[in-house]
Amino acid sequence: MTSSPATADLPDALRRLPRTIVMVGLMGAGKSAIGRRLAQRLGLPFVDADAEIERAAGQTIEEMFAAHGEAYFRDGERRVIARLLADPVHVLSTGGGAFMDAETRRVIAERGISVWLRAPLDVLLRRTARRTNRPLLKGRDPTEVLTKLMELRYPVYAQANVVVDSTDGPPEQTVQRVLDGLAAHIEGRRKAAGAG
Questions:
Q1: Could you report the per-residue pLDDT of 151-194, keeping only the tens digit for each?
Q2: Which domains, ranges and CATH numbers included, belong to the chain?
Q3: What angle do CA 168, 100, 48 make, to 5 degrees?
Q4: Rg (CA), the chain
Q5: E strands of 3-157, at which residues?
Q6: By CB neighbour count within 10 A (0-12 exposed, 13-18 middle, 19+ buried), where does 104 fall?
């Protein structure tokens, strides 16, 4: 990665990222919004896995769920994320269920650095209410669905390399927390490798 005005103030650990940064978390956590800003700060490309899945399938995620079901979508998601993680280092935003797949988690652990954007229920409800193309919320009570997803997914998301709280404050604050968490994680790995 070449240094630019945007990356000039970054610690050394973040100027030579060894792996793709993979954003994980529930719908509405800010994976795409924060991921885009993070990529800009790091001078890296941003890739949205959901957009890549739609491009590969030639239909929207909503259409895939309706026509083929969730299992079909998850299979395509697994393959697309594995392919994207073979690309040069970038920032990758994944769908809310991607990290729940054991094979996808394994590939992310091998080739990426996972960042969980952890958001409270009220924040998720406000953010998901802005968009109507959430297949898991279609025709259901968002509070009930999101509460169940939090119970099911948060213990798995907690396996991410870096955990950052996604709040309603300015996005730049969340981006800075991600940068701080990444720097600490990378330094920790380097020290562990040096000690071994």
A1: 999 999 999 999 999 988 899 999 999 999 999 999 888 888 87
A2: 17-195 (3.40.50.300)
A3: 60
A4: 17
A5: 20-24, 46-48, 91-93, 112-118
A6: buried
